[in-house]
UniProtKB/TrEMBL annotation:
This is Abhydrolase domain-containing protein 12. One of its GO terms (molecular function) is hydrolase activity. InterPro entries: AB_hydrolase_1, AB_hydrolase_fold. The chain crosses the membrane at residues 12-35. It comes from the Eukaryota.
């Protein structure tokens, strides 16, 4: 080997060693609790750096079609929220709404949007939980709010929050903290607005599916259970442990793929992760609990939606979430193989539209929709979501006994 060749080889060894060292440092940082939040929640990546989320008109909404306000949590945090009016409903009250002052409502109960929602016996409400990173106004979220009411523009209101540590909300995110935030929103809807749980559907996307599932599970397992009319879960993940092995930044960079190739090393890393978000297990626990409540009418309606071209969270996560939920519907359980046979026999193939399967249990229904297209975020604004929300509301007080 010549001196020049040896020099080049040594330089390559140094570069490779440096890359390995940097990656090992990154993995070590991920294991530090104080720094995990930015990996799991990305809450400081607002994606609306030069926009004021107190001015929803920047995202194409009409004057006072969206009312920003704040909610106070029991542990002292302040959450920024939006109340989004459906277009048909807004049209009926446009003159009165446009005469009100714009901007943050210091007391939302004094605003017309709140009073109209409270006093309309036909109104329906979506409690909206967004994914990691960004704010209420980021990315595909504003088009998604419009999709919530697209199938019923006269009735379906939406209230969305920025979790603690996101956007203008105070505090720092954590699994327990986000559940408090979700509970705060639910309490506002049920007790301040006074809208019945049977007129509420939970919507979540990505991280928001974990938040929505945790909220639904918590309220269903209280001494006096509260059961919402339905859940629409878009691009859920089974749990953080599986997510660490499959997640791709911006859909392309599998940051922990090298670690995932060594199961023991991945298990060790996961042991340091504080936020577990075990959605597949919590949803199964919710279904199992409701199936044994003994009520004689349908008490849950769950729709799981995922796109095959989702490169951030692979659609295999939805398969696991669906499988665990189905397994929980009977005392003897349903194996993965049996679930797959059921899909083959009773599922509906829609060509380029993907495929659908419904599992009808004694006390509810679990529906899985795997679309061909939609990516991770764009799908939130698609008609498949609008239809899922409408379908959940249509199941109100449906007797399945």
């Amino acid at each position: 080997m010549t001196l020049r060749a040896a020099s080049v080889l040594w330089s390559l060894i140094i570069i490779v060693g440096a890359v390995i060292g940097l990656y090992a440092t990154f993995v070590a940082i991920v294991a530090i609790p104080a720094l995990q939040n930015q990996v799991v929640y990305l809450n400081k990546v607002t994606l609306t750096w030069f926009q004021d989320v107190s001015v929803p008109e920047q995202w194409g909404f009409l004057r006072n079609q969206v009312t920003p306000f704040t909610l106070e949590t029991v542990d002292g945090e302040s959450l920024h929220a939006w109340h989004i009016l459906p277009l048909g409903f807004y049209q009926r009250h446009e003159d009165a709404l446009t005469r009100e002052p714009a901007g943050i409502a210091h007391d939302i109960t004094d605003r017309l949007c709140f009073q109209l929602l409270r006093d309309d016996p036909d109104s329906l409400l979506v409690l909206y939980f967004h994914g990691a990173a960004g704010t209420l106004g980021s990315g595909w979220r504003p088009p998604s709010y419009r999709a919530m009411s697209a199938a019923s523009p006269e009735k379906i209101h939406t209230i969305a929050i920025d979790y603690r540590g996101f956007g203008s909300s105070s505090g720092s995110p954590s699994e327990d903290g986000l559940l408090v935030d979700a509970t705060t929103l639910a309490d506002f809807a049920l007790n301040t607005i006074g809208i019945a749980a049977s007129r509420i559907v939970i919507f979540g996307q990505s991280l928001g599916t974990a938040v929505g599932i945790s909220l639904t599970h918590r309220l269903a397992t209280m001494p006096e259970p509260t059961l919402f009319n339905g859940m629409v879960l878009v691009a859920p993940f089974a749990d953080v442990e599986l997510l660490t092995a499959t997640y791709r930044v911006v859909g392309t960079i599998p940051i922990l793929d090298p670690v995932a190739r060594f199961p023991k090393l991945l298990t060790l890393l996961n042991s340091f992760i504080i936020s577990k978000w075990a959605s597949k297990d919590k949803l199964a626990a919710f279904v199992r609990h409701v199936e044994h409540l003994g009520q004689k009418r349908q008490t849950y309606h769950i729709t799981i939606i995922h796109a095959e071209d989702d490169y951030d969270v692979p659609w295999a996560h939805s398969e696991k979430v669906f499988g665990h939920a189905v397994n929980a519907t009977s005392a003897t359980g349903t194996s993965f193989a049996d679930t797959e046979r059921y899909k083959s026999q009773f599922g509906q193939l829609l060509g380029a539209g993907g495929r659908i399967v419904e599992w009808k249990a004694e006390r509810g229904l679990i529906r899985e929709e795997i679309t061909k297209y939609g990516l991770h975020d764009r799908i939130m604004s698609y008609p498949v979501v609008s239809m899922a929300v409408a379908r959940a509301f249509q199941s109100i007080v449906q007797d399945v006994s």
